[in-house]
């Protein structure tokens, strides 16, 4: 596939801006997460410019699960200047009846449905300290019997309101590939199925609801690319 280079010098696959390509491809998968559209995805700490309980989204974009090749990298999304970069966590014992955990300081809520767990399990979400929107979810290796939903407010991310912010996805970082480079690069192995909710006359991505089938390391990314081996 031919490649070009962004103004930052990072190679991207050719074919228009990443934002427009992602939006086109995501709209084609509109049936992937229909059930998520009925939820209440209000946030607790972000500035309120709309009330999701009263107003329908201007645009709803759904994305399917994607397994990535080992050469794929992505740009990790940073928190905005108003976000506290101190590590925070929440734990709860969730049983077969399901339950909810929230990290208000990270605008994150996890919804575990009835039947996702066969026995009471201590679930922990750690909002990693530092510049990036990154989470550690415990216990490592836990698989759910039914999909779990995580709801992430986007208003406190550094890309909020930008084209790159409108193409944010959630990615899984496998064991041994969980480091984020000084150039914001990460090496995810999966993109999660997700629904992004846009609001406003010029639609802006406000909230993303994404599916979790297993734990443990998830980050927000924007702009996926495959590294080019210049020596080849």
In a few lines, what is going on in this structure?
The protein is mainly β. Helix content is 4%, strand content 40%.
Note down, in words, how this protein is organized.
The chain has 232 residues and is mostly beta strands. It contains 1 helix and 17 strands. Helices cover 4% and strands 40% of the residues. The strands form 3 sheets. Strands 4, 5, 6, 9, 10, 12, 13, 14 and 17 form a 9-stranded antiparallel sheet that branches. It has a 6-stranded antiparallel sheet with strand order 3-15-16-11-8-7. The two termini are 14 Å apart.
Q: How is the topology of this model organized?
A:
Blueprint: E1 3-5, E2 11-13, H1 18-27, E3 59-63, E4 66-67, E5 72-76, E6 88-94, E7 99-103, E8 108-112, E9 121-127, E10 134-138, E11 143-153, E12 169-172, E13 185-186, E14 190-191, E15 194-199, E16 204-214, E17 217-226
Antiparallel strand pairs: 1-2, 3-15, 4-14, 5-13, 5-17, 6-9, 7-8, 8-11, 9-10, 10-17, 11-16, 12-14, 12-17, 15-16
Fraction of residues in helix: under 10%
Can you tell me the residue ranges where pLDDT is under 50 for at least 5 consecutive residues? 1-50
Shape, please? Answer: globular
Written as H for each helix and E for each strand, in order along the chain, the element string is: EEHEEEEEEEEEEEEEEE
Structural class: mainly beta
